[in-house]
């Protein structure tokens, strides 16, 4: 069952809604006044110039210190994930479009301006969706049966949803919160659950624990495939880099997060020392030195 929960304090309504909200411009302000009412994901453009935050009403874009709304339909994007050439998402259509709700799986090849339906429209809304940056493999956690997935669980497709395969996910403990796929190996996938962080090397058939006895929140593979970033909560928020070969775990210094935690992580494909994180309370930070120092670019949804 999909949940983002149990961070060690009563879950405030704002935190619970942070995963299912929207982006909208401040009334009476120019697009530079875009406010992040909620956050549904985080991804850089392939050229590294734009940071995208998908939402309930379209995409917010951060570019060279300025915030705008991206051109394209103002859909409610959920499970948003980017590869080198494409965006993939699920979610719900904007009001008045006449499109089937929910989307199932959709794809954009032009930065979100237009979207192609890949199946399961009117059936499934995948809140947990991850893609391989170079391979375009797609993994989802499906909470309910549909016409192509007979039971809940982790599924993956190598052909844009034409055929889905169910993963056995042996050894994976707890409720699935987030997934991440290795950029070049379609069989390597990480999972965050309410019991920790887990890794699979066999297309999610089996998992081994990397971090246990803590709330897993987010996972992200470096684009060179050598490290996994893992966001967790155990009394306080934490971000850890895990070397996939040596299994060395290195804590990353986080900016001050009060009653908050990391929900999404992304790396700039052109400037590999630059990362972005977004939190449940709609704070967004950038680092240009691999996580040593952070600059806030959104403060509880107010873009800076």
From TrEMBL:
Listed InterPro entries: Glycosyl_F510_1955-like, WD40/YVTN_repeat-like_dom_sf
Protein name: Glycosyl hydrolase
Keywords, in A-Z order: Hydrolase, Signal
Gene3D superfamilies in UniProt: YVTN repeat-like/Quinoprotein amine dehydrogenase
GO molecular function, one term: hydrolase activity
Organism: Pelomicrobium methylotrophicum
UniProt signal peptide: 1-30
Coiled-coil residue windows: none
